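Quick illustration for those who missed Monday's session on complexes.
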Amino acid sequence: MGWRVKYVDYPKQFANHEQEYMGIIRETLSKGDLILRHQLSAFEDNLARFCGTRFAVGVSNCTSALHLSLYAAGVGEGDEVITVSHTFVATAAAVHQLGAQPVLVDISDDHNMDVGLVERAITCKTKAILPVHLNGRICSDIERLVEIARDHNLVIIEDAAQALGASSGGKKAGSFGLAGCFSFYPAKLLGAFGDGGAIVTDNEELAGLLKLLRNHGRSPAGDITQWGFNYRMDNLDAAVLDFKLARLPAWIERRREIAGMYNSLLSGVKELKLPPPPQGADRYDVFQNYEIEAQRRDDLVGHLNDRGIEVMLPWGGKGIHQFNTLGLAGNGGLIKTTAVFEKVIMLPIYPELENEHVEYVASAIREFYDAG
Ligand SMILES: *Cc1c(COP(=O)(O)O)cnc(C)c1O
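Prediction with pyridoxal-5'-phosphate bound:
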């Protein structure tokens, strides 16, 4: 189907910088700079600076970033890791694949971890807390979460896959915990031409360990220091991402502008619950997604699709406690999370989207509720 408003527009994204991309690809390939070359370390330096951390380590995707960070932090067999259900399955899979148990707490109004519920979820097996900064918004009360982790001697690993550049109290996503994990999946804020991810940290020892582990446990001299993984970021991806990173602040500003438009065009529609506006005083949201709660959600989706507007339900419309195969169903009382998945819907938001598209989407939504 030819959408009038697509949910993402990869061809347009490419076309906007085609010359530069082809130049970077030609230069990188013609030099044979394919694995762990200077383009990767340049990107890592720039990414660390962008996040306000001392180190960044490029890896193959955010799932491997989460897996590697938890592993390096010592999470293993029988441990518990506190996280949320309103997240991608990868968050919990990284925990599960280490033989540890994801413990799910409910979300609050901003759709992020309800930090007030964390302390009562801590047991003697708890090793780490894994907050998810969903939709480009830092988990509210992250500062309180940092205190809780300190009091209970737990590490925080941030799933910041959706929050590159977001901040709270002047501190960037990824810089609150021991490590922060990012995704460069094509639809993310900073998208690669395929998969990509990174881990940021202030801890020098951890950064060194992560660099060894992502490359088979091999030291630069070729010695095998321990069992490792092949979780390297491709050098060509790093070269392209470094170019894109310089443009990211402008792209984020455009996302925030679109979010502001949706917020004002849809304000007063009583059947909707909108996300907090971009003008938060102590908070900078980067709007990876524009996620709203809508009454009669499924009918609204049909109405928008009929008008050529492509929308998405997060994770296909279920939290991870609602996929029976994962065995996380009985895990905590996730009343709010479950209720949110009845209503939640994501509207198109990306830098290439035109104002007239935003207005068209908003008017189609108003038309649906006006018709009653
Ligand atoms: C995209 C995403 C991931 C996984 O990232 P990949 O790079 O695809 O492995 C993990 N967590 C969240 C919240 C995500 O949005």
